[in-house]
Amino acid sequence: MLCELSLTLERERPAYAVHGNMLHYVKDRFLRQLDFNSSKDVAVMQLRSGSKFPVFNMSYNPAENAVLLCTRASNLENSTYDLYTIPKDADSQNPDAPEGKRSSGLTAVWVARNRFAVLDRMHSLLIKNLKNEITKKVQVPNCDEIFYAGTGNLLLRDADSITLFDVQQKRTLASVKISKVKYVIWSADMSHVALLAKHAIVICNRKLDALCNIHENIRVKSGAWDESGVFIYTTSNHIKYAVTTGDHGIIRTLDLPIYVTRVKGNNVYCLDRECRPRVLTIDPTEFKFKLALINRKYDEVLHMVRNAKLVGQSIIAYLQKKGYPEVALHFVKDEKTRFSLALECGNIEIALEAAKALDDKNCWEKLGEVALLQGNHQIVEMCYQRTKNFDKLSFLYLITGNLEKLRKMMKIAEIRKDMSGHYQNALYLGDVSERVRILKNCGQKSLAYLTAATHGLDEEAESLKETFDPEKETIPDIDPNAKLLQPPAPIMPLDTNWPLLTVSKGFFEGTIASKGKGGALAADIDIDTVGTEGWGEDAELQLDEDGFVEATEGLGDDALGKGQEEGGGWDVEEDLELPPELDISPGAAGGAEDGFFVPPTKGTSPSQIWCNNSQLPVDHILAGSFETAMRLLHDQVGVIQFGPYKQLFLQTYARGRTTYQALPCLPSMYGYPNRNWKDAGLKNGVPAVGLKLNDLIQRLQLCYQLTTVGKFEEAVEKFRSILLSVPLLVVDNKQEIAEAQQLITICREYIVGLSMEIERKKLPKETLEQQKRICEMAAYFTHSNLQPVHMILVLRTALNLFFKLKNFKTAATFARRLLELGPKPEVAQQTRKILSACEKNPTDAYQLNYDMHNPFDICAASYRPIYRGKPVEKCPLSGACYSPEFKGQICRVTTVTEIGKDVIGLRISPLQFR
């Protein structure tokens, strides 16, 4: 089989610069110019030859029509830049080759129309003029790269941040945390900037306030700003968009990587790998819809809803997530989805329409629950009727005081031969005679007699008494102290639904109303007729017969001027002069009049806000979202067996809320403590975490003590508990991240070593091969990274075993290592004696599978060495090493992760997502 291997030997990304409608780019040692409007592509200048490295980047000066071309050598100290002035009258067939001014420097960037800045090989900043002469030197903070940031300003890059620096005033203006920025792309008005790293994008405003962070699993290639303020960027195989609020998504896929130069309308202008200009078409509907929603341009939202094919689960989910289920409600046609959205935003009317269309019992039950919460007992009644829930229907009639319908329910129960329901309704109504009849009919003669006698129905009681057989039946005694239990009579039956809060109309309903009902009225009604018909209805005194006179009485038959004729009673001056600033548009006054009740949307719970704001597993556990927490642990550290995590999950979740009692008669209420409580606000909270790194470090000391006293199995369990707890930490800085990773390493070394020691002690010692295997495992243990006190114990064990096996040469090395650790005097004395004996006969009696001079890792499953250069698989959490045949199995160290699984990596700090 033949395989083709492709290696990129030269830098793929072309050097280019965009200004207005022109693109300048370097191709085949020529500087070319592309007019976006006319697609005219010409070579304007031939570049100076001599450099064996391609042009790294370009900075264009439109004022002087000059360019700076930077070349980055493999040895950075040999990097150079060239300053060219582009000829005004270029011959595209035979372009000139003007002499450029070449100097050494890592990067050169224009900072004014006749000045540019150079970062030299010593990482200091030089300001030069158009003659390539140094005009001044500027002291800047430590940096390894510079980027353009507008006239007089630069962006300085260091290891983990970008700094905005004022060259003229020589001071730092702002900074933002992001590591290893590769490219900086400013919007046309310089109001926003996108900072592109290898796998991350940070969008900031002019003051470098971070507006959003986007993490990509695939390398970010390029980007450009859309004219509407959306950042369009490319990865190796996708064109994507990012809105400044953090929303991002895929626009289309790519066959090969491209480098975006400009975005306008539906067109993406770009250069491919061969540096050929291309134009790709995209569909901007999705991000323009989200942008209009974010910017509250509701007319555009309505237009897109009506004219674009936006219907899709992703858009519906987005609207629900952003708190606009009522928007999705107006363009979703599927009745089931409409029903769910209507319930979510509390729109009972639309939910009722959808329920009628679906006519599903489950839908009626859900609608009944939501309607009951709103106090809409009329719809609750309908739902109970549709589901034939007679018990709840009877109770509803009881609590609303509707005795007439309650009697009908009693009759229905009798027809259905539902004795229990029949009797229950009789109890609700306080109908004693009916209860006696029911008990009598169902054969409960004694209860029927007691009921009649106790409630004073003497005739009925006597007739029942006569039916008793004195010889076989005993007539029950009547309690003389019995008290009457009668349901209270409803004083004010509830005929209407519970009153609700008056809330303002939602924007979407308002837009529809203004475009529909309000717009139609404005077009069809003559303003001159308003005083007759519309106001006339409110003015008529339609009074009843309780002594009040009808409005027409006293005015006469012609009081309103017969028909629609205007009378002279209204003394209105139509030509009143008003100041021009009080001019009001015709539709402005109708907003408050044509509104109807819109229920308030249900807010987002604090636990859901926690999940939305964090990608750390512990935050999802504290929020109670175990499923997403498991998904994050699976993706980040490869957990596939969650049984051992059950107790940790429950303990962590128990710390997520506080509880307090407001009133004795009410259930306890919950509080949701935030760790960023100072700036959490309503939507930016993340939960307070009870488990701290210092807690695990303190628990580590107990593990050390157990190891010292030889309780290996207990120590392994404690080490494993610490190891599994590390992914549930939240730390604030890189030092703590490093300490947490070091803690994992310590736990892994001890778990592997102690597990191997436990296994070694279980091995039999009868044969020579078994003894050799015991010595090998003891020798491997000496290569674990342990505390000195424990390493002394391990070396003593290995020394004794090898001395007994008569492998004196290897035993001597263990003795020397032991003495270097400075053991107790009595131990040192015994070790010197053994060493002296070994040096007299420095040979090994038996050949073992152990080479102390060849570095190796210990396979945590087979406890055999994996020497350097051999294939190895690792646990994604602990880093424990395994032979390739164990790939895909459960890690022996963690007992929860999959060996060799490809994962994102441990994430315990928000810094790791920047």
Jot down its keywords.
single chain, 35% helix, 914 residues, 18% strand, Serine Threonine Protein Phosphatase 5, Tetratricopeptide repeat, alpha+beta, 4-stranded antiparallel beta sheet, 27 helices, flat, Methylamine Dehydrogenase, Chain H
Description:
The chain has 914 residues and is α+β, with helices and mostly antiparallel strands. Among the domains are: 11-177, YVTN repeat-like/Quinoprotein amine dehydrogenase (Methylamine Dehydrogenase, Chain H), CATH 2.130.10.10; 298-466, Serine Threonine Protein Phosphatase 5, Tetratricopeptide repeat (Alpha Horseshoe), CATH 1.25.40.470; 696-913, no CATH class. Helix content is 35%, strand content 18%. The protein is built from 27 helices and 33 strands. Strands 1-2-3-4 form a four-stranded antiparallel sheet, with no helix packed on it. The longest helix has 29 residues, at 734-762. The radius of gyration is 42 Å and the shape is flat. The protein starts with 15 loop residues before the first strand and ends in a 32-residue tail after the last strand.
Radius of gyration: 42 Å
* Biggest sheet descriptor: 4 strands, antiparallel
Shape: flat
Please tell me the overall pLDDT. Answer: 82
* H/I helix tally: 27
Helix content: 25-40%
Instruction: Give the N-to-C terminal Cα separation.
Output: 43 Å
Strand order, biggest sheet? 1-2-3-4
Low-confidence stretches: 1-9, 511-574, 581-595
The assigned structural class equals: alpha+beta
How much strand content do the residues show?
15-25%
Secondary structure: number of strands: 33
